């Protein structure tokens, strides 16, 4: 149990890591709950967050290091002990601002709290041996490339193998490296309420420490750092901005919406892109936002209300089986922002890479195809449909679009997408000009796939 106000960042991180494993819980939810209960300073809370996400993102490498010094395989250790070793090794191996002595000392004290003499000496021994032998820790030379990359850059072997064949070695390594970095924070200015320049002035005035940079990808995007939790700021509560990744903002831009259009957003919750579309439409026209999970519709309602948007209606629906009444080609624009494997957002959800398996991708792609097949039936002739995902897997992205087009001659790739996107993206586009795969290391934004189809008239 976590007691209020009595924990250090490292002890809280250990409890959170152990609980995530025990309950198979979402890391962000478990960490936020623990931080809310504990009484850490802002700095300590920052350290706890870094330790939890850092350790989660490096799991395979840390376990490999531990196995060099423990006789048992790490999965046979008690969960608290396994996570204590991971946490201490993470700090020793990847962080240089905490002295080694302090790390070992605190780990041993934690072991005394949770274990017995034997486990205390195991922790002490493993960490001291690591410090003595760390320079000689190398994967066996006969290992194939994918295994070495997976170990050095802390990704599952199957995923690295897949990326090597899709993107080549240079891109794979660059992507893995970026996935291990903390994500950037960006906000979208709500231009229904304030201009970008006025927003920058207010942000600077209210949070003088904030470092603000204009996004090169989106004309309404700002990169913000040293600003604390923006979601608690008056600017956010007054509906002047939304927190959104820059790649995600590009999806709104790709939709090429105009005021007074009828728009369908088939996988809309929590509503980030729905709201962006409404802003781009000047809050004129109509957007029908669907989601299969009723509780998530409330998130869309809250977002649009906060942003002063009035043209969005929400509805619970399984977009793989849309109501007959929708299917009469009535929408000018449709967005299918499909659920996906999420491999473009590993920076934000590091545990995701360990949870998904190769078989999941086939199942996800089949579901995405169903979503696309249904959505296209609701599009007006001449209308445009954007299919996007926050993943980098070709099976869910480019290959899926080509498979779709092979059996739907009434649709074509829309080559004018490239002209609606920032020039910076041009060289990354598919030769058709109709879709782009953004990898996380291109612009330090989320990995996203964005494509646009047009229904022939
Ligand atoms: C990638 S998220 C959408 C993010 C959203 N467009 C945004 O920008 O905030 C995918 C969403 O699809 C929803 N979903 C999953 N399966 C669905 C289905 N069969 N029909 C409708 N929505 C579905 C999920 O609940 C999830 O909220």
Automatic annotation (TrEMBL):
Residues binding S-adenosyl-L-methionine: 267-273, 291, 318, 337
Family according to the record: Belongs to the class I-like SAM-binding methyltransferase superfamily. RsmB/NOP family.
Protein localization: Cytoplasm
Keywords from the named record: Cytoplasm, Methyltransferase, RNA-binding, rRNA processing, S-adenosyl-L-methionine, Transferase
EC class of the enzyme, as a word: transferase
UniProt keyword annotation of NAD present: no
Identification of the protein by name: 16S rRNA (cytosine(967)-C(5))-methyltransferase
UniProt xrefs under CDD domains: AdoMet_MTases, Methyltransferase_Sun
Function, as annotated: Specifically methylates the cytosine at position 967 (m5C967) of 16S rRNA.
GO CC annotations on file: cytoplasm
Keyword field contains Ion transport: no
Pfam families per UniProt: Methyltr_RsmB-F, NusB, RsmF-B_ferredox
Enzyme Commission code: 2.1.1.176
Residue ranges of domain SAM-dependent MTase RsmB/NOP-type in the record: 175-456
Primary site of residence: cytoplasm
Catalytic activity: cytidine(967) in 16S rRNA + S-adenosyl-L-methionine = 5-methylcytidine(967) in 16S rRNA + S-adenosyl-L-homocysteine + H(+)
Organism: Ammoniphilus oxalaticus
GO terms, molecular function: RNA binding; rRNA methyltransferase activity
GO biological process, one term: regulation of DNA-templated transcription
NCBIfam families, per database record: PRK14902.1, rsmB
Matches recorded under SUPFAM superfamilies: NusB-like, S-adenosyl-L-methionine-dependent methyltransferases
Active site: residue positions: 390
């Amino acid at each position: 149990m976590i007691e209020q106000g009595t924990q250090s960042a490292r002890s809280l991180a250990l409890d959170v890591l152990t609980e995530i494993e025990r309950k198979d819980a979402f890391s962000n939810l478990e960490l936020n709950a623990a931080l809310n209960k504990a009484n850490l300073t802002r700095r300590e809370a920052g350290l706890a967050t870094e330790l939890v996400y850092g350790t989660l993102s490096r799991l395979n490498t840390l376990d490999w290091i531990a196995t060099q010094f423990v006789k048992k395989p790490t999965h046979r250790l008690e969960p608290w002990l396994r996570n204590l070793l991971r946490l201490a090794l993470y700090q020793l191996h990847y962080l240089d601002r905490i002295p080694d002595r302090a790390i070992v000392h605190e780990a041993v004290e934690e072991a005394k709290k949770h274990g017995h003499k034997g486990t205390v000496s195991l922790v002490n021994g493993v960490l001291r041996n690591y410090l003595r032998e760390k320079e000689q820790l190398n994967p066996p030379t006969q290992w194939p490339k994918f295994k070495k990359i997976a170990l050095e850059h802390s990704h599952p072997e199957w995923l690295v193998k897949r990326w090597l064949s899709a993107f080549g070695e240079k891109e794979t390594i660059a992507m893995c490296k970026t996935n291990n970095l903390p994500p950037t924070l960006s906000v979208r200015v709500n231009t229904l309420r304030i201009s970008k320049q006025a927003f920058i002035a207010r942000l600077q005035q209210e949070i003088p420490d904030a470092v603000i940079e204009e996004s090169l990808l989106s004309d309404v995007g700002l990169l913000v750092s040293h600003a604390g939790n923006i979601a608690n700021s008056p600017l956010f509560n007054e509906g002047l901005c939304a927190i959104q990744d820059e790649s995600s903002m590009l999806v709104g831009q790709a939709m090429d919406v105009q005021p007074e259009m009828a728009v369908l957003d088939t996988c809309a919750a929590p509503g980030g892109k729905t709201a962006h579309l409404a802003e781009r439409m000047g809050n004129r026209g109509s957007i029908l936002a669907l989601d299969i999970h009723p509780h998530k519709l409330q998130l869309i309602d809250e977002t649009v209300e906060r942003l002063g948007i009035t043209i969005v209606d929400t509805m619970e629906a399984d977009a793989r089986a849309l109501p007959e009444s929708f299917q009469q080609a009535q929408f000018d624009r449709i967005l299918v922002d499909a659920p996906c494997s999420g491999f473009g957002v590993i920076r934000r959800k590091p545990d995701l890479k360990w949870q998904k398996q190769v078989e999941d991708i086939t199942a996800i792609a089949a579901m995405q195809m169903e979503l696309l097949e249904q959505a296209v039936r609701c599009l007006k002739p001449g209308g445009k449909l954007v299919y996007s995902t926050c993943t980098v897997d070709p099976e869910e992205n480019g290959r899926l679009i080509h498979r779709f087009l092979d059996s739907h001659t009434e649709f074509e790739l829309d080559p004018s997408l490239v002209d609606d996107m920032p020039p910076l993206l041009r060289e990354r586009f598919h030769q058709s000009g109709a879709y782009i795969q953004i990898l996380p290391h291109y612009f330090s934004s989320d990995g996203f796939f964005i494509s646009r189809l047009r229904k022939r008239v």
